[in-house]
Design a protein that fits this description.
It is a single chain. The protein is built from 4 helices and 2 strands; from the N terminus they run E-H-E-H-H-H. The chain is mainly α. The protein has a two-stranded parallel ribbon with strand order 1-2. Helix 1 links the parallel strand 1 and strand 2. Helix 2 crosses helix 3. It starts with 7 loop residues before the first strand and ends with a helix.
């Protein structure tokens, strides 16, 4: 993705690799197919009209991610680590944790619906502190 001030549009797709539509192909081929579908639908418009870049982030319900999603994670983690001065690995773990819970929350809401109006706060402390708190809450 381009320069410092270039906008990037990210479209997320989560698919079930064991569905009947995905059984006849390998998981890697399914990731590629879903990425191509998203690019075919959105990339030209975003590039020409919005003058931005487009990244299809494809995840599977079994926990995997496509090549573009992996590159997105790496790029975001390197930029955040460079900006905050924290270690790349710590930032990557924090980003994976946050996005995993966000995807899980959206899946649960799709299945059961929203019980109340909820707007999560987007405050982020130092990644080390957040990871330490997560480790304490899971070990208790």
């Amino acid at each position: 993705w381009g320069g410092r001030f270039e906008r990037t549009y990210i479209d997320v797709r989560v698919f079930y690799p064991h569905a009947s539509s995905n059984r006849s192909t390998s998981v890697a081929a399914s990731y590629s197919r879903h990425e191509k579908e998203k690019k075919r639908a959105y990339e030209q418009r975003i590039t020409e009209v919005e003058h931005a870049t487009f990244v299809p982030a494809v995840f599977s319900t079994t926990g995997g991610m496509s090549k573009c999603a992996s590159a997105l994670y790496k790029r975001v983690a390197s930029l955040v680590a460079q900006k905050t001065g924290e270690q790349y690995g710590t930032i990557m773990a924090h980003i994976r944790c946050r996005l995993s819970f966000a995807l899980l929350r959206s899946c649960v809401m799709c299945l059961r619906g929203a019980r109340r109006v909820f707007s999560p706060s987007l405050e982020m402390g130092p990644a080390d502190l957040v990871l330490a708190e997560a480790a304490l809450s899971t070990s208790a």
